[in-house]
Amino acid sequence: MPTHVLAAILFAAFLHAAWNAALKSQPDTFMAALAVTSGAAVLAALALPFLPAPDASSFPFIAASSMLQIAYYLLLAAAYRVADIGHAYPLMRGVAPVLVALGGGLLAGESLHGAQWIAIGLICAGGAALTLGARGHASGGLRPTALVLLTATAIAAYTLVDGLGVRRSGAPAAYTAWIFLLTGIGIAALSWRRSAGQLPAYLIRHPGLALMGGAATTGSYGIALWAMTQAPVAVVAALRETSIVFATAIAVFLLRERATRARICGAGLVALGAAAVRLA
């Protein structure tokens, strides 16, 4: 993988971990997620008039991805209500690349060679180790893990859809903007009964969360979609999960979750996997 593509994905990974940590730090993760998606939708609407239009053949993928993204955000907010970020984030982000790698061969016809599978395996093994290192601090029971695994499935599904769609679009930036515009509108519509009258006041109290979170999630995924036009979807998806390392650092140093040997080893495996992607 070219160095500039690798560097771009690592930056996207940092952005992703940062906005997830901001979401988790809010007392009401549902309203926080709604604020982030609203901010992303506003930014997308402002950008679209200045971007080249995606090819018409990509719009069915945009529609499908938007529906999957809506499911993802709702599941993410639910997961963060019952599980620590140090448990939920590594598990959901570590499982998704495996599902993408398996689905990519079936749906996109992408075949990976041995070194790429090893790199993906290292990243996913690191995610598993980080999850084990955080289990003692996760909210107990099967429900948190079930929600996290459902979120991982949604991540894999929209990643595969977008890997196919963005290559047809010919315009990764506009493709990304359309997804976030439709996702924001969809989540606001579905959430209206619960959030009626609350969102405007929440946005006034938390403008930074809406704008910075919206910019971070849009930028993070936009970079990833561009990278999918440069490299196999499964490799990009796995490398993007280096966000696990950033999320763990944020959890330990900012959110004061406990550092364990498993977490340290897991972060090392993810970093090693990222290096292997560069060499594969």
TrEMBL record:
The chain crosses the membrane at residues 30-51, 58-83, 114-134, 141-161, 173-192, 204-227, 233-255. Gene3D superfamilies: 1.10.3730.20. It is found in: Cell membrane. Residues 147-277 form the EamA domain. Residues 1-17 form the signal peptide. InterPro entries: EamA_dom, EmrE-like, Small_drug/metabolite_transptr. One of its GO terms (biological process) is lipopolysaccharide biosynthetic process. Keywords: Cell inner membrane, Cell membrane, Lipid A biosynthesis, Lipid biosynthesis, Lipid metabolism, Lipopolysaccharide biosynthesis, Membrane, Signal, Transmembrane, Transmembrane helix, Transport. GO terms for cellular component: plasma membrane. GO terms for molecular function: transmembrane transporter activity. Coiled coil: none annotated. It is a multi-pass membrane protein. Belongs to the drug/metabolite transporter (DMT) superfamily. Small multidrug resistance (SMR) (TC 2.A.7.1) family. PANTHER family: MULTIDRUG TRANSPORTER EMRE, SMR FAMILY PROTON-DEPENDENT DRUG EFFLUX TRANSPORTER SUGE. This is EamA family transporter.
